[in-house]
Amino acid sequence: MKIDFSNLKFDDKGLIPAIVQDVYSDEVLMLAYMNGESLAKTVETGYTWFWSRSRQELWNKGATSGHMQKVESITYDCDGDALLVKVDQTGAACHTGHRSCFFNPLWNEGEGRNLPVPEPDNESIYGVLAELYRVILYKREHGGEKSYTKYLFMKGQDKILKKVGEESAETIIASKNNSRQEVIYEMSDLWYHCMVLLAYHGITPAELLHELSGRRSKENNSKY
């Protein structure tokens, strides 16, 4: 596929920065550089290719680790000197094993204090939910005949809502039984089916967490 690079401004080394973002959660995963050849290969293959400034060679993200980035879209900014690449990320984007390369806390607004930044990897609640949501979306489209997730979407909204109701009731019973392990097990089932319901409506976990964060930030919020 031939693409027009005429609106892009590569630097004097023929490079342009590419910000890589998770297409489902909007989490910023990494920053790398592309040249004309790597950008063309990215478009041609549907997976990210970059130019390594240290090794002076092309590299295909995830070719050795298996943590591939399936490209969903590429846009450029108003000045044409930066790219935004939205991807379906498999596994970790960072070579350290973190979901995102941006995990080192520096500063957060909050009474002038340095506050810890939640680590956005697969061990954080955000990372776990984002990865589960990604799997649900994948199974919805590509799940086999034995895929339970695929089955739920095929049956439709009423079936999904029925399962949310059933799992809610089972969570209530587990709590009444005062069984910690039962609560964990049943709540996990409930959360999974709630995530399926979010996917049914095209709502991402990031939107849900943003709503919760907004409620917390409102002074004297009656919901908390």
UniProtKB/TrEMBL annotation:
Region (Phosphoribosyl-ATP pyrophosphohydrolase): 129-224
Chain ranges of the Phosphoribosyl-AMP cyclohydrolase domain: 30-103
Keywords: Amino-acid biosynthesis, ATP-binding, Cytoplasm, Histidine biosynthesis, Hydrolase, Multifunctional enzyme, Nucleotide-binding
KW Amino-acid biosynthesis (keyword) present: yes
GO cellular component: cytoplasm
Known catalytic reactions: 1-(5-phospho-beta-D-ribosyl)-5'-AMP + H2O = 1-(5-phospho-beta-D-ribosyl)-5-[(5-phospho-beta-D-ribosylamino)methylideneamino]imidazole-4-carboxamide; 1-(5-phospho-beta-D-ribosyl)-ATP + H2O = 1-(5-phospho-beta-D-ribosyl)-5'-AMP + diphosphate + H(+)
GO molecular function, one term: ATP binding
SUPFAM superfamilies: all-alpha NTP pyrophosphatases, HisI-like
Pathway membership: Amino-acid biosynthesis; L-histidine biosynthesis; L-histidine from 5-phospho-alpha-D-ribose 1-diphosphate: step 3/9; Amino-acid biosynthesis; L-histidine biosynthesis; L-histidine from 5-phospho-alpha-D-ribose 1-diphosphate: step 2/9
GO biological process: L-histidine biosynthetic process
Stretches the record annotates as Phosphoribosyl-AMP cyclohydrolase: 1-128
Record has ATP-binding as a keyword: yes
Primary site of residence: cytoplasm
EC number: 3.5.4.19, 3.6.1.31
Tree of life domain: Bacteria
Compartment(s) where it occurs, according to its Swiss-Prot or TrEMBL record: Cytoplasm
PANTHER family: HISTIDINE BIOSYNTHESIS BIFUNCTIONAL PROTEIN (PTHR42945), HISTIDINE BIOSYNTHESIS BIFUNCTIONAL PROTEIN HIS7 (PTHR42945:SF1)
UniProt similarity note: In the N-terminal section; belongs to the PRA-CH family. In the C-terminal section; belongs to the PRA-PH family.
Cross-referenced NCBIfam families: histidine_hisI, PRK00051.1, PRK00400.1-3, PRK02759.1
UniProt-recorded name of the protein: Histidine biosynthesis bifunctional protein HisIE
Species this protein is from: Succiniclasticum ruminis
